[in-house]
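Try it yourself: sequence plus flavin-adenine dinucleotide, in.
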Amino acid sequence: MNSSSEEHQIKVKKQKTYVEEHEDMEEYTYIVVGGGIAGVTCAEHLYILDPEAQTLLLTASYLIKAVTNVLPLTKTLDAFDVEEQPPDELVSRCPSVTVKRDAVLQLDAKNKVIHTTSGKKFKYEKLCICSGAHPKVIPVAGSSPYVLWIRDTESVGQFQARMADAKRIVIVGNGGIATEMVYEVTGIEVIWAIKDKYMTANFIDPGAAEFFRPELCREKVKKAVPLKRLKYTIDKANGDIPVMGGALGPDWHEKLELKGDNFHRVILEKEVEVACILSPEEVKKLGKTVTSTKFEEGSTEWPVYVELTNGKVYGCNFIVSATGVVPNSKDFLAGNNFSLSPEGGFLVDDKMQTTEKDVYAAGDVCTPNWELSPHWFQMRLWTQARQMGSYAAKCMWSSVSGEEMYMDFCFELFCHATKFFGKKVILLGLYNGQGLESKYEVLLRYSEGVEYIKCVMVDGRMQGALMIGETDLEETFENLILNQMDLSEFGEDLLNPDIDIEDYFD
Ligand code: FAD
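Structure, out:
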């Protein structure tokens, strides 16, 4: 055999091997992993920017999350609903997007191939990982069947089932989820264990916490308005694909209201953590003194007991762990060179790129690693998941098309709109003086039970604001933070209720 026919045979063999290896491999320009807000927004925006390109949305959840009824509140802040939808709805809106229910088993970033748990392979030009985060469970929980958390529709279902016979629960955590649960759960006793000096410390200051404190023992006002999202669908396990639902949408807590009685019975335990979880037998054996509450009638034998670091031991039906989240990055790490933040998020640059070429990340799974603007920081929230998903799509498209892309304006100012204890809450910029090391002044307007307005000022310029109640000041304050106007001449009159500052700065 001469050398040229040898070469030919080798070439044919190589080609054959390539075809065999790749015959079950689908190729896409863009692949987005995750059917939560970040992933769906990314896929939608890729379709808008590059409708001819083939995009695959790969998600372990049955339903996907879609943002609907977007209502701009200010230049950088939108109010919106989050709906769970079957994947077909996304495909009908964006025909070049294919949605597949499958979970990533391994990412081969060098060869740009994703291997899934169902044994399939997908090749991409650009990949965006939007795999969200999972709840951080209290360290002492072990595999205790009495510790629950809330993340997705399935966990809400488990919570509802357990609530049916519950008389007392312990909620551990001080963030938005814990706060909303404490408000929504009525008719049973709630022991709220927080590690900070005051409630809801991630979002509000001690003054605002005092504003809300009466709500802990007040009757909850029943809402007359119907729910925007009427049903939750519980994910069901199927074959080998693990069930990983996306984080819930804005009205998730409406479903927690299960008891007829509208009274809040909350005992707030401050500056504590859970020391251990004990069975009734362990409580007896160790001779622990069980703490009784003002709501308790007679002594009760509880299925589980929680010992706090202040020495109190509370009996309860179950414990809810709401102590933050851990990014879902682990399924993508093997064999790759990703740089991660200490909490496990993919570090992304100002183009949402991870440290692996052509791999982007957005939403709860990522951690920004660019020079942040002075009034913006990351919080794992719907608003930011949506903004990052949209911006990542622009960056991916820009890299394919060669079009120049600048940092999105939404990363100029931290904005968040929510409701605590049934009241509208708007957070702008450095609303808690974040990073200002106490070198700031606070202007305050307070009307008990009606409104709480706080402006964080440095050298007469507004750095952040917290507004509770129907203040209608968000747009004015947003402008004042963004343009850094010197407001020294107004002094405390900036919040004088007799001066219409909204009109003045219009
Ligand atoms: P997710 O919504 O978690 O979506 C992740 C997706 O990735 C899922 O579809 C999952 O199936 C998929 N996935 C994961 N791993 C894989 C894999 N290996 N292969 C394939 N697919 C995978 N934010 C607010 O702004 N305001 C609030 O009031 C608020 N309240 C909240 C209340 C609760 C109970 C919870 C849990 C969260 C709350 N949040 C709130 C946070 C908000 O929900 C999240 O920041 C946001 O949903 C994150 O979106 P995401 O798209 O990044 O991730």
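One thing you can check immediately is this: Confidence is low (pLDDT under 50) at residues 224-238.
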